[in-house]
Each structure stands twice: as C-alpha cells, then as structure tokens.
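Class prep. Write one:
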Amino acid sequence: MQPKVTAVKGFRDVLPAEARHRRRILDAVERVLESYGYAEIELPLLERGELFSRSVGVTSDIVEKEMYAFEDRDGTLVALRPEGTASVVRAYLEAGLSRSEPVARLYYQGPMFRRERPQKGRYRQFTQIGAELLGREDPEADAETLCLVEDLCRAAGIGKVTIEVNSLGDAICRPRYRDLLAAFGRALGTRLCEDCRSRLDRNPLRILDCKNDACRAATADAPLMMDHLCEPCRRHNDRVIELTTAAGVALGENRRMVRGLDYYCRTAFEISAGGLGAQAAVGGGGRYDGLVAELGGPETPGIGFAFGLERMVMAAESAAAGAITEGEGAATGPDFFIAPISETAAATALAIARRLRGVSRVVELGASDRKLKAQLKLADRAGAHWVVILGDDELARGRAGVRDLRRRRDYADCVDLAAAGSEIVGAVEGKSKGEA
C-alpha cells in the first residue's frame, strides 16, 4: 500500500459540519455589512510582493518572517496575500474608485496566508472577513466602524466581546514620539531581544508589541503614544470615544497597543472574545490615512478592520457551550431520499428528485444497484425525513409509497409519479400530518 499524502503543515481541510457553521457566520456578518452600506469586492490571492512591503511595512513580522513570497517566471516577486487591506487599496486605485467614489465602503472575505507557528485557531492558511471605509477622516467614521464591529460580533453569535482602543498619533506627533521611544529602547541595550534592537532605527513602536517576556518586562515603563498626542489627535480620540460610548458600545483602553501593521495611525483597536484562553483576539483594525498615498494614490483617509473566521467560529462555539464536530451541529438532513430498487426505476427517480429540488426541497438520490435495505440504512444515516421507494411495481402503478423515517410509518401509494414537485410535497406532508 502506498503511503498517504497528508496536508501541508499549517493547512487543513474544513469538513462539512464546520463548513456549515462557517457559512452561517459569514452570511450573518455579510448581512450586517450590507446594512451599513458596504459592497463586496473579490481580490486575487496573488499580489506583487512590493504591495505588502510598502504597506504592511518591511519591519513587520508579516513581511520579515511570515509572507509566502517567491519569484515568478519573469523574475517578478509575488506573494500570497497575508492580509486584505493593502489589496483593497490597490484595487481601489487601479479601478479609479478614488475618482468615481470619493467615499467607498468595501468588504471582502477569503483565504490569507502567513507562515507562522500553527496553533489552535491559527493556521498558515486562514480566512479573513474585513471591511474598509475610504474617504472619511472624521471621528464619526471611526465611531460608526466600532459600532459595526460590535454589531458583527453579535450577529455572529460570538458572545460578549471586549473592544480595546488606542491612538497611534499622526504624521505630526508620531515622529517626535518615535524618537523618544527609540532613545528609551537604546538605553535598554541588551535587555531587548535582537529583533527589537534591530527595529529601533526603523520602527521603534514595534518594541511595545514584542511577545518576548524579557522585552515586555524591560519596556514596562516605556513612554506611550497617548501621552504625546498632538492636540488634533487628542481631540479626534476623545470624540471617537464620546460618540461610540453614546451609541452604547463599551470600549476599553490599551495604551501599549500598536497593532502588527505599520500603516495604522490615530484610532487602532482590537477585539477579544471570551472562552479562547490567552490568545483571545478575534479581530482588529484601525485608521490608515497615509496608506493610499503610500501606494501611489491621492491623499485619502481610511479606516477598516478584519476578523479571523476560524477565531470567530471558536468564539461562537464557546458562547454556545459546545464545539461543533463532524456529525454535530449539522443540517437536519435531506427532506427526501429517493430509493430506486430496479435499474428501470433509475430514470424516474432522477426526474422526481429534480422536481422536488425545483421546489426547494433537499433531496438525496440512491443508487439502483443497491438493495432497499442498504438504501434505507443510508437514508437513516443521512437524517432524511421521507424515503420514496421506486421499483418496477411502482412504475407499473404510476404511484409510489413513502416511508416516514422520523415517525417510522409507511404511507402506501401516496406519490403520483407524474405529479409536479409541489404536488408531491403536498401529498406527502398532508399524509404525514394526517397520521401524526
């Protein structure tokens, strides 16, 4: 026997029970997004590598360590997308939306790729659903985005969430703060890890984001951006909190938050859910007013966020007090199982199945080379409600019997083989209700 071929580390299959759960969450989230006026955009999996080095930042872990990047045949450096915001902005500029839609609300969903250490709920291929609001710089846009985030969490059924916010300043106040933080970091010397020391000249804010315990202890007294905001940034932050709180959304403050992407400014936020342990984040986002210009467009403000679908599923399972496993949380099964028990009955069985599906009934079709007992066993395992049994005798009479697997009753000749799908449904449901 040949050895099995297994999935690549960090990549996995999503089996039907989880796929149904994911689809329910995605559908709920998309309904909320569209109620806020967002329209869906589909993005390519493969982008030019420079898109992410110019947007996410060459000092970010994503670009430095995690991005799947390689040279195409023509020598172009390409990358599997590690996040969605840069791709949305690239599409926004390439399609000329910056001219035709001064304010654009776009959302996306699909797989992203990062070569990070796999752990529960975090994989090297993962699904994100995110949204971007381009063309608005006012604090009202930030507040509405935070309200949208909470509404999405509620619709997805992920239970109580915590939304933590911080301000990362802007092009006026952040450079001065960067210099101050860099000087603080250099004074720490070897108390910082090698990665943090290398970032002091390029992006010192990242030392606040380091997961190394020694670095976190060394930077416990580091100066914080919130204490060094310019007056416009301070007013913006205060107004965002005022508006969001007035709308009934509770916010927490996290002054060490810098997020893992270099393009954020002013409002930044993270969303955490209960029941996920130490790694409680399900999503995050923030304002990125310089990103469009960085990618070659006009000065255009923007704010957005993204959720990890796998983390949302885990949070929803925790909130429902039970994990979804294969065979659990599944659909209730097909409405009808059509069981042809002779080769000549196969064509009629297929035609009846199509008629029933045409009236929105879920139908599973058996194989005519299987005995009736085997087909009934398959129907029972699938969770079917009714089994229509078709053989040569049924074809001769033009009528077929039905077995109600939920009530364990048989209804003789209640299906007219020439009837429309709606008539078949009416006859079977009527018989079943009449003998309930």
Summary: Confidence is low (pLDDT under 50) at residues 325-330.
